[in-house]
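Input sequence (154 aa), recorded before submission:
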Amino acid sequence: MFKFAPQQGWGGDFGGTGLTVTDKAGAGYVDDGTNCKVTNPGWYLLHVKTADMEMIIEKPKVYLIGDCIGGWEGFEQLFTTPTDENGEFVSPAFTNSGNVRMYTLVEGAAWWRCEYNIFDGAIVIRTEGDQPGVPGTAGQKAYLNFTTMTGKIQ
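Predicted structure, token format:
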């Protein structure tokens, strides 16, 4: 079970019956009073719109993009999704040597607003400005563990 708390100390927390939910991923969402609950285990992407008290549940789509696969728009390659909570999202093999870029598809958002990369073994989410380049070699893959927020390129 879970709920959302936009302020520290649970001020303004919400979930459950106070939330309009669209379950596009088959998560088996049910409200549990003031909490949210999914009955089907798996990986899910939650789009939460606090102004509308709305949540959309989707399957996560993690993509590889950029020089390591030969280009940008139209070159995106989908990672595999793990089957357990401690598994890794794994990219396709890099087709080229060059900088590695990764993002999660969020409907209505530019890819670079949902970007992250691996620095010193940690997944670092892009906040402001561009992230430094992370080099990869043709044949390598990226491995992301969002449970531990760690990753590697090998």
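Checked by second reader. The longest strand covers residues 45-49.
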